[in-house]
Amino acid sequence: MTARPNFPAEGGLAPAPVPSVAFRQAMAQVTASVHVITTARDGHRAGLTASAVTSLSDAPPMMLVCIHHDSNTLAQIEANGLFCINTLSGDDQAVAEIFAGRKGLEGEARFGVGNWTIAVTGAPVLASALNSFDCRLVDVRTMATHRIVIGEVLALGGSQDGPGLIYRNRRFGTF
Length: 175
Ligand SMILES: Cc1cc2nc3c(=O)[nH]c(=O)nc-3n(C[C@H](O)[C@H](O)[C@H](O)COP(=O)(O)O)c2cc1C
What we know:
7-stranded antiparallel sheet; binds flavin mononucleotide
């Protein structure tokens, strides 16, 4: 069996720090579900596309999302104390691109595509989403360039049916 490159032998010295470009390339091979994280207060809506999303516990039901500290939506999530994680269906690629900022739209202007309703918390819900995890913000932890945003799930919605939107190797697909 050949040794894997950049992998220290057991008990050996740690290798040199991994360059961020190599790390990004490795992460590009990790297939991810795609979500839009939304928030709102007094009719002011905001949202971003995110793949760094996972469940944290089931009792109580909790989710976490990792968001870059420069995100406009992050600031509003923190101010509003609520957010909704909309898990995108295979038909929602255009929504993912808009909320990733690829069409040059910001804030409210991103909600021009998709059928949006309002969750229990008041956060925007995408009608076509596979899941909507409607969350009360419970904690925010800073780590490197990102904040780990933790929410308690107060309500669930979504079709839970049909293909989901996925992202791998910097391309969208469906599964
Ligand atoms: C597939 C995909 C996944 C993304 N995942 C994340 C993520 O998990 N966290 C994050 O901070 N940004 C992520 N982004 C980038 C944000 O969507 C993008 O920077 C967005 O414009 C931020 O908007 P805002 O500044 O209005 O909040 C992702 C982009 C794409 C295309």
